[in-house]
Amino acid sequence: MAIMITMERETYHHGDLKEALIEAGIKILKEEGINALTLRSAARAAGVSHSAPYAHFRDKQALLASISTRGFHRLFGELIQAGHRYAEDPRALLLETGWAYVEFARSEPAFFKLMFSGILEDEHSYPDFMKAVQLTFSKLVEVVETGQNAKILPAGNPDETAIAIWSLVHGFISLYQEHQLPGQVLQRRPLKEVFFGALFHMLVTSPRTP
């Protein structure tokens, strides 16, 4: 009976094993943290032998790259949804895209921490990861270009403006996650209003290029 169970647990259709290991890795990441995530622990959670992951991942770094890629795809999906909802209002598009980024970080803190941890030693070795990162940043640049065309953002290099706004949003998330946002401010206003206020302040005080 034990042999039959082992055979059943290690029998996957083509491609299913990789997906099972990624999902197992995500579960470990969320429940136990990144230090608990190894190829062996992912194999154990997926119900396969400890050597099975090497058919798809040469090491832990490769698994982390795949999980990070999945995270960027999910974030990109959230940004796309915000874009569809506020496509006709450039100011709302900018604010709500930023808020979608914040909400992703709040709802997926383990994913978010991994995605921006810099843990990958050679990220350029993972083309799917690089493509997902570039796609997400391109979406932010697109939102900036819409704002520039509507004259609510300063003219100039949209990549650099996107980095400036991204830095503000990312910094806001870091303050929130580390419980460093002033309590007296959060007592007066909901988090979303505080965020919109910070981002709007940047918009109205940014120097305009003639």
Describe the structure.
By secondary structure, the chain is mainly α. It has 2 domains: 1-57, Homeodomain-like (Arc Repressor Mutant, subunit A); 60-205, Tetracycline Repressor, domain 2, CATH 1.10.357. The chain has helices at residues 2-9, 16-32, 39-46, 60-85, 90-107, 109-115, 127-149, 158-177, 183-188, 191-205. The chain is globular and about 55 Å long.
The parts where pLDDT drops under 50 for at least 5 residues are: 1-11
What is the name of the CATH topology of the largest domain?
Answer: Tetracycline Repressor, domain 2
According to DSSP, the number of beta strands is: 0
- The helix-strand sequence is HHHHHHHHHH
CATH superfamily of the largest domain: Tetracycline Repressor, domain 2
Strand share of the residues? Answer: under 5%
- What general outline do the C-alpha atoms trace? globular
Tally of individual domains: 2
Largest sheet: none
Using only C-alpha atoms, the radius of gyration works out to 21 Å
The CATH architecture of the largest domain can be named as Orthogonal Bundle
Taking the alpha carbons of the first and last residues, their distance comes to 78 Å
